[in-house]
């Protein structure tokens, strides 16, 4: 037999967060805890189908007017309009002036990818692979790869996390923006920065926007946690809306994986804000071409769930209540973990646990301490020290807090 034509294909390394969950599943220890996964869990440690989602799914199943015909290439119109509306706000000047467009996408990742592909083809010259794309240090690891796979050759880090003070390195960030070449692309986390849980304050966002405007930098917002950070959709969209009010042209990639719990339905939206309707229509016409060769047209189920919920005032209120339930549980776990660590007298300061927001917390545990947590305590977390607060429950809090205490006191 001849050798396989694939004989020279090297094995790619596993994706860290999925590998961690696979290791967790295989672990037979009864004390095991998964703080790695990027999804909401109830206090029983279970995934949660939002009650409003269950209700709307039943409405959809009983609606005989619906069928499984292809959606338009750019997606379900009522989904696109409503998704962009919650990102930009009901009274957005850009919506009133009809200078926004939307592309339904396969999750937030799909929105980032279509946006990246468009920028590479059409932003700052045709087939531009040289424009620097800046991502925060650290960031969600897929940002790098999505832009690289879209053809960008110059992906650069920008300062974000100050490890010593366990907070935002605003000066470092602003300096990087000052020094970036004009028209560089900046990926900004709209809220609940992943993985640090640390966002700029409104005052700091204003400073960031001022530099970006002066330096003509392009903001590409990634909004994967709207509602999760504070429990309020409007508060979590403040930065995006501020940039729009300042006259920026921008992209905003939205994910409905977390705030609707629709992870595997792959529901996302890319909002384009332009100078005028004509510009936006031409951009959308090119995005349609990109979608056609990427997934041709998007899936309907998740988009129907979101569109139905967002377009009914009653269901919308119910959904906001569900989001708040999730956000409040995260906030509770934050305060419970912090108070336990402080009561144990764990060396270091732990105020960052309650000061950080969103699903994740950057604990400050170093890689050796993380290894100890995984190997000795069967508590799974990312090597960066990031933990998913939803992995904590009233039952495992004591065990996790004591384990962190041990890791910090025994291992430097
Ligand atoms: C910062 C950030 N952006 C985008 C995404 C992508 O979300 P989706 O699963 O909808 O593609 C995630 C998901 O973890 C994320 O954390």
TrEMBL record:
UniProt-listed Gene3D superfamilies:
Aspartate Aminotransferase, domain 1, Type I PLP-dependent aspartate aminotransferase-like (Major domain)
Similarity-based family: Belongs to the class-I pyridoxal-phosphate-dependent aminotransferase family.
What's the protein name?
Answer: Aspartate aminotransferase
**GO biological process per UniProt:** aspartate biosynthetic process
Keywords in alphabetical order = Amino-acid biosynthesis, Aminotransferase, Cytoplasm, Pyridoxal phosphate, Transferase
Ranges that cross the membrane: none
Taxonomy, top ranks, is: Eukaryota, Metazoa, Chordata, Craniata, Vertebrata
**Subunit relationships:** Homodimer.
Query: What is the annotated localization of this protein?
Result: Cytoplasm
User: What GO cellular component term, any one, is given?
Assistant: cytosol
Which top-level enzyme class is recorded in the Swiss-Prot or TrEMBL entry? transferase
* Cofactor dependence: pyridoxal 5'-phosphate
InterPro entries named in the record: Aminotransferase_I/II_large (IPR004839), Asp_trans (IPR000796), NHTrfase_class1_PyrdxlP-BS (IPR004838), PyrdxlP-dep_Trfase (IPR015424), PyrdxlP-dep_Trfase_major (IPR015421), PyrdxlP-dep_Trfase_small (IPR015422)
Q: Pinpoint the Aminotransferase class I/classII large domain residues.
A: 31-404
Which superkingdom?
Answer: Eukaryota
- What does the further note read? In eukaryotes there are cytoplasmic, mitochondrial and chloroplastic isozymes.
Q: Name one GO molecular function term.
A: L-cysteine transaminase activity
Give the EC number(s) listed in the UniProt record: 2.6.1.1
Reaction it catalyzes: 3-sulfino-L-alanine + 2-oxoglutarate = 3-sulfinopyruvate + L-glutamate; (2S)-2-aminobutanoate + 2-oxoglutarate = 2-oxobutanoate + L-glutamate; L-aspartate + 2-oxoglutarate = oxaloacetate + L-glutamate; L-cysteine + 2-oxoglutarate = 2-oxo-3-sulfanylpropanoate + L-glutamate
């Amino acid at each position: 037999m001849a050798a396989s034509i694939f004989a020279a294909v090297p094995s790619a390394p596993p994706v860290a967060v999925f590998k961690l969950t696979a290791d967790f599943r295989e672990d037979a220890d009864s004390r095991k805890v998964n703080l790695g996964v990027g999804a909401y869990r109830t206090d029983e440690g279970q995934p949660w189908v939002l009650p409003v989602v269950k209700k709307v799914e039943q409405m959809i199943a009983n609606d005989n007017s619906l069928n499984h015909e292809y959606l338009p290439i750019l997606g379900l119109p009522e989904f696109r309009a409503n998704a962009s509306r919650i990102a930009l706000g009901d009274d957005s000047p850009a919506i009133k002036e009809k200078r926004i467009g939307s592309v339904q996408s396969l999750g937030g990742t799909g929105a980032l990818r279509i946006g990246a592909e468009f920028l590479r083809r059409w932003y700052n010259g045709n087939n531009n692979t040289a424009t620097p794309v800046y991502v925060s240090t650290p960031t969600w690891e897929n940002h790098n790869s999505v832009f690289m796979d879209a053809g960008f050759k110059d992906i650069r880090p920008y300062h974000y996390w100050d490890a010593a003070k366990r907070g935002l390195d605003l000066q470092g960030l602003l300096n990087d923006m000052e020094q970036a070449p004009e028209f560089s692309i900046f990926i900004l986390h709209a809220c609940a920065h992943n993985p640090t849980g640390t966002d700029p304050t409104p005052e700091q966002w204003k400073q960031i926007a001022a530099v970006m405007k002066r330096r003509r930098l392009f903001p590409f917002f990634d909004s994967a946690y709207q509602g999760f950070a504070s429990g309020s959709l409007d508060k979590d969209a403040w930065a995006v809306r501020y940039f729009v009010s300042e006259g920026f042209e921008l992209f905003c990639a939205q994910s409905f994986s977390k705030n609707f719990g629709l992870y595997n339905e792959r529901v996302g939206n890319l909002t384009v804000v332009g100078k005028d309707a004509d510009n936006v229509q031409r951009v959308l016409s090119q995005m349609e071409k990109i979608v056609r060769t990427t997934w041709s047209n998007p899936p309907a189920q998740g988009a129907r769930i979101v569109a139905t919920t967002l377009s009914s005032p009653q269901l919308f209120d119910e959904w906001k209540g569900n989001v708040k339930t999730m956000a409040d549980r995260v906030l509770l776990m934050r305060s419970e973990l912090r108070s336990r660590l402080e009561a144990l007298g764990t060396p270091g300061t732990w105020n960052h646990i309650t000061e950080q927001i969103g699903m994740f917390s950057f604990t400050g545990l170093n890689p050796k301490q993380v290894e100890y947590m995984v190997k000795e305590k069967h508590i799974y977390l990312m090597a960066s020290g990031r933990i998913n607060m939803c992995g904590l429950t009233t039952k495992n809090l004591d065990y996790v807090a004591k384990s962190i205490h041990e890791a910090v006191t025994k291992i430097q």
